Amino acid sequence: MDLKVRLIGDPVLRKKATKIEKIDESFLELLEIMTNMMYREDGVGLAAPQVGISKRFFIMDDGKQLRKVINPEIIEFLGEESTFEEGCLSIPGIFLNVKRPEGVKVKYTNENGEIIEEELHEYTARIFQHEYDHLEGILFIDKVSTASKAKVKGKIKELMKEGKRIAKELGEVEIK
Ligand SMILES: [Zn+2]
């Protein structure tokens, strides 16, 4: 499987991803590959659409725990909104402040097929929300102020050109 990090401009990043139906050997292998990819790229999260797969799962590591998150749901947003600088492997070199709720109550399936329900806060909640957005076709730059978006307009335009080129070359990656 030729997996490559997809850049803004790639239509797969703008699609609403669909549910994973079953966790089998080849899917677990894919999770492993993506985990290695995330660490290699120095990311703290990597969602399936970011490697061209329009499915609802992502990997994240907040520095305390590696989570493999399948078919996630955000049940409730908790606490006040907070502002934090975010970046994204699909929008390399751009870091901007994003406002998000401080915490989330979430439910998902892990790689062992167990249903996990937990409350996440601060940095962990931040990563979860960012990755969850990827499954909805939302990128963090959609959530920044018009003023800060204006500052990176040129760079985004360049990235989009490259993103479209990669999309044309690789297309969407289908998994069963
Ligand atoms: Zn991202």
UniProtKB/TrEMBL annotation:
Binds 1 Fe(2+) ion. It catalyses: N-terminal N-formyl-L-methionyl-[peptide] + H2O = N-terminal L-methionyl-[peptide] + formate. Keywords: Hydrolase, Iron, Metal-binding, Protein biosynthesis. Gene3D superfamilies: Peptide deformylase. The active site is at E131. Fe cation binds at C88, H130, H134. One of its GO terms (molecular function) is peptide deformylase activity. The keyword Metal-binding applies. Its EC number is 3.5.1.88. InterPro entries: Peptide_deformylase, Peptide_deformylase_sf. Its cofactor is Fe(2+). Removes the formyl group from the N-terminal Met of newly synthesized proteins. Requires at least a dipeptide for an efficient rate of reaction. N-terminal L-methionine is a prerequisite for activity but the enzyme has broad specificity at other positions. Belongs to the polypeptide deformylase family. This is Peptide deformylase.
